[in-house]
Specification:
With 94 residues, the protein is α+β, with helices and mostly antiparallel strands. It has one domain: Alpha-Beta Plaits, CATH 3.30.70.100. 24% of the residues lie in helices and 30% in strands. The chain contains 2 helices and 5 strands; from the N terminus they run ββαββαβ. Strand 1 and strand 2 form a beta hairpin. The longest helix is centred in the middle third of the chain and has 12 residues.
Amino acid sequence: MLRNRKKDVPTASRSTAAGSTITATYEIAGMTCGHCVTAVTDELTALPGVDNVRVDLNAGGISTATVASKAPLELDTVSAAVEEAGYQLMSAPK
């Protein structure tokens, strides 16, 4: 299991209009199949304020999860959700 975890994980684009959505992309290690995608999607979707989750699988490599939410998500909260699914949050895509 990878142990190199960075604290500056999310990248986000923010809109200031009323009813805006914040989108953040996270890198996740350890995912290998469709079941992994479902597990991560379910955990992230269950977080308060999350509207949408899209997971792009890179089997055996670093996958990405793009999360749209009504407000910024705490990094620790996202990390805990990913870990609950059985994977590890890594650094944001460059």
